[in-house]
Design brief:
Length: about 375
């Protein structure tokens, strides 16, 4: 069966709860969408606001505080929010990638320390972080162990050691400086089993997808992904994608009709639907990619119209400034205005000018067919 670009778009929106806000709890929503990028503390909140009916930010506050949802370095060596019950499997799948990305990096190897030196400190780090610790406290321990202060050792360890970020307050549960705690002990999971579990979850959240798509979203090696998907072939079904690409999916997963309506959305920075594929045209038209995904890795908050990125937005005094990359019709602007009205009210008690420190991207210029302040 061959799938069109629009069919793939609707499948992604459906599985990411973007065809209609879902009546689910915070943890269940996170289970559905796999993980939410969290390097900017507001982003998981805004991602869930777009996906969960009647979303209350206090529910995510409580989930972080109770440990039902955790924040840790996982996919693409980047901070993500995930269900607590998923963390051990996801970390087990990603550990060789996370470890190799740091311990083989010149910033670590030029310290004169070996990979074994970092590994030897993991038990001591776990003991110290049995209670929440700051970076300075952890670096003090490492200095005591080594006799020299080496910040790049902590730079490596914080990426692959079994650590969670501890809520420290602020409007979105986490503020700088970060605090860390050791992850609860978990039963050992074989790496291959963990990878297969992660990839099944990826396909449920983002499929149909290719080997390269899964490798791009996770940063697992293509060979690792290819082998895992081959091991899972009895659980998967294959499709032909645009251009003849081979895509796989879990059997029985939803594939909505391509003519199903897609409501407007105001997606947060680094929303997963913009990062889940090697070919991001499924949601982000190629001509807009450079304007949305900046060279330093910043991914701007976007306007979603008929399931496709049509511009960017930022919070300003008086509302939401929407910059459309193309001319939008009255119905599109009306839908975006309704979303903006709800978003302004959502932000009011938290951070009305969310993402303000990223305003320099607008100062540097963006392609703009039309700019409106909404609602």
């Amino acid at each position: 069966m061959r799938l069109s670009e629009r069919q793939l778009n609707r499948a992604t929106l459906d599985r990411q709860l973007l065809l209609g806000r879902a009546l689910v709890g915070v943890a269940d929503a996170l289970g559905d969408v796999l993980a939410l990028q969290a390097q900017e503390p507001a982003s998981p909140y805004l991602a869930l606001w777009n996906r969960v009916a009647g979303f209350d930010a206090a529910a995510l506050d409580a989930a972080f505080a109770d440990g039902e949802v955790v924040k840790a370095t996982l996919l693409r060596s980047t901070l993500h929010a995930v269900r607590a019950g998923d963390w051990a499997t996801f970390h087990g799948a990603m550990l060789p990638t996370l470890r190799g990305a740091r311990l083989h990096d010149r910033r670590y190897t030029t310290t004169g320390l070996a990979a074994a030196d970092a590994d030897a400190l993991l038990p001591r780090l776990a003991a110290l972080a049995a209670v929440p610790r700051t970076r300075v406290e952890i670096e003090d321990l490492l200095e005591a162990e080594l006799g020299v202060r080496e910040p790049r050792l902590w730079w490596a360890l914080k990426t692959f050691a079994p650590l969670h970020h501890v809520p420290t307050g602020g409007p979105w549960s986490f503020r700088r400086p970060s605090s860390f705690v050791a992850a609860p002990p978990a039963g050992a999971v074989a790496h291959g089993d963990a990878v297969r579990s992660l990839l099944l979850r990826y396909l449920r959240a983002f499929g149909p997808a290719s080997v390269q798509d899964a490798a791009t979203f996770t940063l697992l090696g293509r060979g690792v992904v290819r082998q895992a998907l081959d091991d899972l072939r009895d659980d998967l079904v294959a499709f032909e994608g645009p251009g003849g690409a081979t895509l796989v999916d879990v059997r029985g997963a939803s594939l909505p009709p391509e003519d199903v309506a897609a409501p407007p959305r105001l997606l947060p920075m680094w929303d997963s639907v913009l990062l889940a594929y090697a070919d991001r045209a499924r949601v982000l038209p190629a001509e807009h990619r450079a304007a949305v995904i900046r060279r330093n890795g910043d991914v701007l908050p976007t306007l979603l119209v008929d399931g496709q990125v049509a511009g960017v937005w930022r919070a300003v005094d008086g509302g939401i400034e929407a910059t459309a990359f193309r001319r939008l019709d009255a119905a599109a602007w009306s839908g975006l205005a309704a979303e903006a009205d709800a978003l302004v009210r959502f932000l009011a008690d938290r951070e009305p000018t969310v993402y303000a420190r990223h305003a320099h991207w607008w100062d540097k210029g963006l392609p703009a067919a039309e700019v409106r302040t909404l609602p």
